[in-house]
Amino acid sequence: MGMQGHPHKERVKTMDSRPPTGRNPPMTRIAALSVVYVALAALAAFAAGDALPSASVPMLFLVAVIAAAAQLGLRAGIGAALLGFVVCNFLFVEPRYTLRVDHAHDALALGVLLIAGAATGLLAGRAREQANRAQSRAAMLAELAAFAEEIGRARDAAGIRARALAHISAAGADPVLLLARDGRLEVQNGAALIADDLAAAERVHRRHVTQEGAARGWAGSRFDFAPIHGGVLGARADSAGGAMLAAIAAQADAAIDRLALAGEAEREKLRAALLSSLSHDLRTPLATIRGAASTLRELGEALPPAARLDLAVAIDEEAARLARHVDNLLQMTRLRAGLDLRPDWIDANDVAHGAVARARRAFPDRAINLNADPKHPLVKADATLLEQALFNLIDNAAKFSRDAVGVVVRADREGLVFRIDDSGPGIAPGDLAHVFEPFFRAPGTNADGTGLGLAIVAGIARALGGGASAASPGIDGAATSVTIRLPQVRMQAV
Amino acid sequence: MNAQAHILVVDDEAQIQRFLGHALTASGYTVAAATDGKAALKLFAGGGVDLAIVDLGLPGIDGLTVIGQIRQTSDLPIIVLSANDAEDRKIEALDMGADDFVGKPFGIGELLARVRACLRKRQSSVATERLEAGGIALELAAHKATRDGEALRLTPKEFELLALLMANADRVMTHRQILERIWGKAHTEDVAYLRVFVGQLRQKIEAIPAEPKRIVTEPGIGYRFIAG
User: Fold this and answer.
1) Do B86 and B17 fall within a single domain?
2) Which domain-ending residue is among B70, B98, B123?
3) B158 and B204 share one domain
4) Distance from CA of residue A111 to its chain's centroid?
5) ipTM of the complex
6) Predicted model pTM
7) How far is B200 from chain A (nearest CA, A)?
8) Is B1 within a domain?
9) Quick one: closest CA in A to B16, which residue?
10) Structural domain boundaries enclosing B152
11) Mean pLDDT throughout A249-258?
12) Which of B108, B111, B112, B114 is the mutation pick for testing A, counting most A CBs within 10 A?
């Protein structure tokens, strides 16, 4: 402690000037009640006059002292005992109207008053403390239960951290949240920290253990700190919030872990859908080629000439289809590389244009119209994945309709919307809910596809924190509109 | 007799239907084609089907459901077509009562061999006293086993295991099916146990136990006794 320099003195002062926490009654009330009880005892002694033997007078003051101590605790007991002794001595003990103590039994009376006051005060204080503790425990448990329930509904780590701060604050402590950025902890919620607080937070972050702040009046951190995902959570030491801190941090950590696992599972599902799409695309033509070729080889003599020709045609067609899929595979490699999500602020119109240009190359005789957002919104997304999702949607629309395909980009306060409109046969109401499921193909459609295009779109949209939906009839007169909505958007100053 | 067998092919891929139609017809079978589960069940209900070849990845009612529906009323031989890596679905289909599987892509010879084995089994599924295949003969009542005329010393469990595999010669038996039939329902997960017995059996009946030709392993699925 000796090493702590001058600046801390000021802080110690500010700490002492903190308002009392309300556990102990204020001094003014203690003084007032002590005076009242002692005065009542004196009045009673006067009223009794000679009826009361002078040796019994201190007993009345003893009653006053016990009453004050029981009601207001140790300090009131001692205060009332001292006051009672002075008054008793001055008014009732010979020589009267002096404060001299001539006899040993008077000194004994003072001792008895002090001991009775202190003992009663201590007992009363402990009982009150226990009641207070039970009460605050109950409040803390209620607070923790509410917290657990709220974070169960939270959708991201930021939401969970915000709830943690709110609950520490509700428990009567100043909360602090620090998150690590580039190896340094930064205060996130505007709390004003001093060097000692920061040093303690750094230690907690480094060692990953909870640490209590310095006791009141001592130099050191004013906050208790607990490690939390990516940073440190703090609460003003010596407060109800401080007692809850470790529990809140542990719960928040568990909730953030759970969210991360859910996100990982989502990406894993997407990966599996991509792989499954890939193997299906390659395996089906291969199965035909191998089956037809082995039939020709093993049953050639038994086959009529027309059947032999048909098998040769099938082999040719499927080899061509396989070649197309290998081309797609190269695109998919790009997509798979993008599966390490690298969200960045990207120009929404740019991505849409990239997908439209690719689709125009794939469908050279089709009109694909891009209706970009004039505000040039930026969206937090992975460009490779988003372009693949948009391409899949345009590809899908182009397969199902003969007329123009519309691509619309629009930003509003809630996020960014990419919409692909077509004028095809539409989707039956009963099928709308299923179009994003893997291998779903609307009954009666005969387009060449794997049934995975829209599933991949939905997977990508979810991986980017948004979602995909379909409407039929669509928007603005389209037969079908399929929409990708992404939550994080920023308007670009143009 | 096989030449008249009527085969139902259930696959949603037109190209697969195309070559299977030619191949099965050229092999002397008659063929009915269904591209989804609903049509398959309708054709089956119409009667006259001797064997079904069912792709597991069907749109709408999937292949497993089709197998389950057929098995409710019939022991029609069923061969499953499925992607090679979809072991779980293959096992599910076999445990549901499919007779065998062929992984896509496959050569036509492999499929025709399975078709023949399944049809043969159907003809000979009468109670039998004696099993004979690949030089191995089992006298079921007397519990006697010989290989090329020489007596084989088999424990009772080994004998039972061999008899089960030979009774289903050329057909795959899943681990679960074997364990349930020989050791009972409580042991259907004890695959390691089964491997030990198969190993012992191979020591006694295979020419080169390390390169088994009679009891072959279907990786991840089960075992198959090869009669030929």
Assistant:
1) yes
2) B123
3) yes
4) 59
5) 0.75
6) 0.48
7) 37
8) no
9) A288
10) 130-225
11) 84
12) B108
